[in-house]
Amino acid sequence: MKCRVCRGPAVIDVRRQNANYCVEHFLRMCRDQVNKAIEQFAMLNPQDRALVAVSGGKDSLAVWDLLSEAGYEADGLYVGLGIGDYSDASRGCARRFADQRGLELIEVDLLEDFGFDLPSGARAARRVPCSACGLTKRHLFDKAAVQGGYDVVVTGHNLDDEAAVLFGNALRWHTDYLARQLPVLPERDGFPKKVKPLVRLGERETAAYCVLRGIDYIVQECPLAAGNRHLGYKEALNEIEATSPGTKFDFYFGFLARAAALFRPIAEADHQNLAGCLGCGAPTTAELCAFCRLTERATRAGRGAGAGAEVDGAAVLSAHRGPVADGA
To answer: pTM of this prediction?
Structure first.
């Protein structure tokens, strides 16, 4: 197996490209694909301050590394969800990465800062854990970006993620979600700009990138994700991709080129009648945003079980900037 660029020994094949790469040219390919995505969708400007949503997994650490290496000013934000050993391990990976590279990692801890952890919060709110996790992270990333004066929030969603979400949304015709499934969501109505620079790279490539760059990341899946429908969609698409390489890429980028604009009016309608949440000030269509409602239910349940005092979370994020902590 020879590298398509230099004809030297290859270490990985990328079947959708019908290509093999050595270490040097695989890493270059990853950088080129990220740069192409940034340029194609106008994700970032050189002067932008970026806040990277960091989980300790391969994708978020890979995109943070790629942006930092490319010269972007990129800080990380880690949200401690209180999922036992899993959260401890993921936090350790995020801290070590930032510490080794002299990068700033901002940390928020649900239990310390808001009075509940994700498992108990999901139970109290009668939400599926992944749903509670998603709304929590989105809220806290948005809040930190606005309060910290960042120009853009960066997430580590890769091609496999986007194709699987698109597959699920198209199967069930969730038009409101299809309207927002874009590589860039522009800043508007109090929400920061959000971008996904890894959309041209697959999950296998981001894992290989981390291994070849010596990035220590958490390998195991979140224990609360068992049975997640999204994982089933990934498996189904993996089977199709195995017999027809390039299907995921064509599916996702074909949607962007041919169908995404059809759902734009729905996205526009979603931004009407927004007002500030009475609890935290975030844009919402209700008196309280979804995160404040989750927090209220979770802390009420905790107080009923004798779990401590109420927490004023309105200004918490601004108090949690600072140097990277040592180790896990």
So the answer is: 0.89
With contact defined as beta carbons under 8 Å apart, do 117 and 110 qualify? Answer: yes
Q: Looking at this protein, which amino acid is placed at residue 166?
A: L
The gap from C-alpha 118 to its chain's centroid, in whole angstroms, comes to 17
CATH of residue 90's domain is 3.40.50.620
Is 2 among the domain residues? no
Across the chain, where does the E strand assignment appear?
A: 12-14, 19-21, 49-54, 73-80, 105-109, 152-154, 184-185, 193-195, 275-276, 283-284
Residues 185, 191 contacting (CB under 8 angstroms): yes
Amino acid at 280: C
Q: Which residues on neighbouring strands pair with residue 73, listed in sequence order?
A: 49
The number of domains in the chain is 1
> How far is the CA of 28 from the CAs of 8, 167, 249, in angstroms?
15, 30, 19
Domain encompassing residue 17: 12-320
What lies within 8 Å, CB to CB, of 311 at 6+ separation is 113, 114, 115, 299
Q: How far is CA 136 from CA 116, 140, 248, in A?
A: 12, 6, 28
Contact 193, 151 (CB under 8 A): yes
- List Cβ neighbours of 150 (8 Å cut-off, separation of 6 or more): 49, 50, 51, 75, 144, 192
Asked, for residue 160, whether it belongs to a domain, the answer is: yes
DSSP string of 160-197, one letter each residue: HHHHHHHHHHHHTT-HHHHHH-SSEE--BTTBPEEE-T
* CA pseudo-torsion sign 119, 121, 125, 127: negative
Which residue's structure tokens are 């952890």? 117
pLDDT tops 70 at residue 81: yes
In tens, the pLDDT along 185-199 reads: 999 888 999 999 999
What CA–CA distance (Å, rounded) separates 323 from 20? 41
Indicate if the pLDDT at residue 122 is higher than 80.
yes
